[in-house]
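#lab-general

N.A. 3:47 PM
ok so I finally got the sequence cleaned up, no stray characters, all 348 residues accounted for. can someone with queue access submit it? mine expired

B.Y. 3:52 PM
send it over

N.A. 3:53 PM
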Amino acid sequence: MSTDESEKQRLRWGWIALAALVGGAAIGWGWWLSVRGGQPEYWPGVLANLGTSVLLAGFLFLLERRFVSETGKVVQEATSAAVANAARDAAAQTQAATASLVERLSELEHQLDVHRSQAAADQDERLSIGDEVSYEKVFEAITVAEEMGAIIARGVVVPASGSLDGPRLSFSRQRTPVSNDSRDLIDGQGSERYSILLGLETGDVWNSPAANWSPEDSPSEAFVRLDKEMIRQGFGPDAKVLEPAVALRNLSYALKSAVAARRSEDGAWLSGASLLEVLADGWALTERGLEVKGHGVVVDHRRWPPATGGFWNPDGVPPTRPSEFDPATWDVALEHGHSWFPLGRPPF
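B.Y. 4:20 PM
back already:
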């Protein structure tokens, strides 16, 4: 208790004694006048009333501090109780709001998990090329991977034979013109449609045989068209050893591996960067560089040795091959990387 509060609660005995003395004197004076006689009855009555009032004031002085003290205690207790009740109510409301928020967040998390599971199941279904190969299945698989950023719009390159140095095919989506007739536009048919572009990777953009795989074509018709184009442009040896079944199987492997890495699935061996080319089982070129299963990125795209030198590797010095890597596959990876990283950077 502070000094000021002690002063406020201490009884003022001087005032009480003075009130008692003045009150008693007034009453005694009135009594004396009445006994003496010869005075009007008015003054003894006034003095008696005055003395009684002063005595009453003294009595009130005596009770005032007690009254104020008790009143303060009651107010303080009532205030403390009100504060405690308000705190309990606020705590209860906060707890209820927190529980509601946790419940809503849990529900949101559950909905997100369900959405991810459904989306993954839908993507997996669309990625499945299966044994019954068709334009629709291949186109859907490429579309899913491209929409997720798992491959670039330029497509993805895969081996098309059992040989490491055999032909390589690129698979990509391409818009092809349908009709320039204005009536088609009026009917809502559009002036273009998608097809699959099959291209032989030769390292020479000016001399790379390619063929369109249209929705109405069977797989054999599309590959026969590519075979004719390869022979016409002087790639008969590659056409002779090209195996469509191997190319399609490697395409499925490439797309599934790229999508799994993009979704950060357990067991995914790629980093999640957009896939450019599958070189062999467990070997791939991505936008980050050369990636090997179990080793991650072993050659960063910025350190790639360009044929004419470059900013990051001006001398064109090839990186040192780790002893556990197959020399032939390593050499093929560096050779193929020159077309993807001509300036030490991935294609745009």
